Amino acid sequence: MGIQILLHLTVMLVLAPLLFGIIGKTKALFAGRWGAPLFQPYYDIIKFFKKGNVYSTTTTWIFQVAPLVYLATILVSSLLIPFGGLKAPVYFWGDFILFIYISGLSRYFIIIGALDTGSSFEGMGASREATFSCLAEIVLALDFIILAILSKQLILSEMVGGTILSSWPLFGPVLLLVGLSYFLVLLVESARIPIDDPTTHLELTMIHEVMFLDHSGWDLACVSYASMMKFFVLGSLFVNILIPFHNLSAILQTVVFGVGMIGLAIIVGIVESCIARLRLNRIPELIIGAFVLALVGLLIILIKGV
Amino acid sequence: MWLELVLILIIFLGILILGNNRLGSMIQLFALQSLLLSITPLLIQPGLHAGIITIVTILLKVVFMPTLLFWAIRHVSMRWEVYPLIGYGKTLILCGLLMAIAFLISSKLDLPDKSTSYLLVPSAFSIVIIGFLLLVSRFKAITQVIGYLVMENGIFLFALLLLEKTPLLVEIGILLDIFVGALVMGIVVNNINQEFGSASTINLTNLRD
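Predict the joint structure of the above. Result:
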């Protein structure tokens, strides 16, 4: 148990920044540049860890705790999801609700951390993050409900595990809809381009990134590392839903999972290169679209019966 | 399995059309939807009959009508549907609700032929509803034409239930009717634009000598 958890966390800690490296490389190649090295996110995190912290006098202890809580919640939520051959080390009946609430908790802490600085700029980002993520949470819950009905399980790692394989021939359309709507949720939650531009520090383009403007040193390292791992966790759920590979041997599963994750990073990079960021008031429409897609999936299950 | 995937993609494209505010990409999405639609007869019942319908549908709905619509928007020089009657988010929510009703109704329907696919009737209803929402919630004449055509796509899906029972001539006649309808609407849009200087249908509610 202990070793499993350690292994799980190590895999994620080591590989999460690589995905961001791949996304950056894809975007650079699309733009006709050579781009930053593949391991640039690692160098960035190491650089941040070497720096000291600077705290504004208006901030309180909440500001210092928030990055740690953010990091911790992401680490805990990763334990509920299988990574290829590695089974989920922690599981119990109904843990998909825990998954939703843990991501709620992490969001709550980064929001109050941002509000704690007293900067109106960060307050704006916090307000946007709260609005969009509370809309996206409904879609995420609906996706989980569909998966739970299909697999007749309430354990997250079982919902996306072996039973999804038998669902594909019968419920392929439903899973396609779930995958599409979950992909939009993934983009909202990890603040990627049609929703939010993670590379700029301009006032009007920021939702997620703006909340970390006052963080420095260790705190900044924690926060950006945690954001990368959040993408890894959500992405691995996506790969688990869309690529049914659960009857293979453990090594093959891991290989398929790894290829799937790299493919996801490349897809996200391509999406970011092809699409411009949406206007802020169009984002709820995108999330409503994702909701309607998931709703159609649910309706199909209801009229067909499992 | 393949038929159902295609039907889901058709619904997905319908939702995309509904949430779009660029006329050009709406027409492109409509053409893509029609292309997927034209494959469905072959998936239901492969054969000469279905093949001819597929070819005629592709010619009319994927080639001619989008070209006509593109010609119309170039002629009227408009790109955006700026102020819809009902906002985009609200239209999408309405679409979800109406689709739920459509799915419930079609599960209650007692159809003679259940052999094709459980998704065919609900998705036909959903596409009709999407087209209907486009018709009632937008002001621009071109968007209304697209709404009408999307609605017709839904009716086409519904008619697939009777694929083997309908004579070929009748089906091609229906398709030609629609083509003529779209042609007339294209000309009407052009005339509205010449008369009022814009292709918004709000102008048509005023009476004058």
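Chain A has a mean pLDDT of 89.
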